[in-house]
Amino acid sequence: MSSRTDGPLVTESHRVDGHDVHEHVLTVPLDHSGNLPGTLEVFAREYVRDGQQDAPRLVFFQGGPGNPSPRPEVVGGWLDRALEEFRVVLLDQRGTGRSTPLDRQSLTGTPAEQAALLRHVRADSVVTDAELLRQALGGDTWSALGQSYGGFCLTTYLSQAPQGLREVFVTAGLPGIDRTADDVYRATYAQTALRNAEFFRRYPRDLTVAQRVADHLEAVEEFLPTGERLSGRRFRTLGIALGTVSGFDALHFALEDPFTRDGRLRERFLLEVGRRLSFAGQPLYALVHESIYAQGAATDWAAERVRGEFAEFALDAPEFRFTGEHVYPWQFEEDPALVPLREAAHLLAADATLPPLYDAEVLAANTVPVAAAVYVDDMFVPYEFSAATARAVRGARTFVTNEYQHDGLRMDGRRLLDVLLDLARK
């Protein structure tokens, strides 16, 4: 292993199966506007295939928010395709992965201080971090690939610092640039209802099983391995798996044998449910999820409010339904990883001063090649909003398909990147 220090950038390098791997750590301001003191570290892992040492860079923005960049155990899929012509930079967005963590252990201070810091974890700050990293790496423009929330970040990048971008590729991640959190959740609840219907058509027995589990949890105390009681409403949030091809069947497998002979929930079932429901590994997802839709107005727990408009998602609805990519205030009372941060979460939800993340005028004058894969049946990113944004970004080209769910890049990444490269370069 070798190491190098260039000003605020520290790099350590090693070899992995025909690749040089450079692990970069960059110190950046906590608040790029200068109002809050302090710094954070931002981490990125760069893969360089042998023979591609002089290739241009492609930076990858992971979905989330609050998820670290991939840790590939094997170089395959979209990454393998990208390394044929790029040096690939896997960026841990601030607060995730090896970047300075932001969780119940590190978010100290008063709830107001915690909320003030969380204001600076959104896409505008992530983009400024990326620009500082690009400059520290030599300043050449780079290509960028964004999956899901990563595409939201790239739409902010195109609004805020297009001069840093050579070309942009987006999968399942063109946001509604003028849509509120309420708009987003109305669309995603409707799509989640459709996915529930499809799931229970495929696995009709699971409807009876899920209803029985939910009823049981209302009547009997069952505890997760982390110590807290599992509620019926929290059990319903397993439905986030319905938005992906890989998660769809995994949810079926989780439901296949949940009860012991004496009518209690099996330990292995509770272990699996606890693993899926805990935010311990990604607390930022819960903390800032609604704030990614804030455009100069408070979100005010939009998912909880809008849920009331959909009778099929009521706890006492005649037929069981899972919820989807929705975060609720009561999760900050039930998940031990979130409980210490509940007051900060309430303050962030009430914050009406979070600035807009997209500039419609800049996007309308865009000159950066943009290619986006847009999925008609996406449960998390509404198709109609993505289509409108594609029209609003000058020169954007789309690959519109119903072949994929939200995890298309993971499931068929080589093909999707090929399609987007061709589309952007026509």
UniProtKB/TrEMBL annotation:
Tell me what this protein is called. Alpha/beta fold hydrolase
**GO molecular function terms attached to this record:** hydrolase activity
Residues of the region (Disordered) are 1-20
Query: What range(s) does the AB hydrolase-1 domain occupy?
Result: 56-268
Q: Tell me which species this is from.
A: Kineococcus endophyticus
Arranged from A to Z, the UniProt key words for this protein are: Hydrolase
Checking InterPro entries in the record gives:
AB_hydrolase_1 (IPR000073), AB_hydrolase_fold (IPR029058), Peptidase_S33 (IPR002410), Serine_prot/Carboxylest_S33 (IPR051601)
Pfam families per record: Abhydrolase_1
- Tagged with keyword Hydrolase: yes
What family does the entry list?
A: Belongs to the peptidase S33 family.
Instruction: Say yes or no: keyword Hydrolase present.
Output: yes
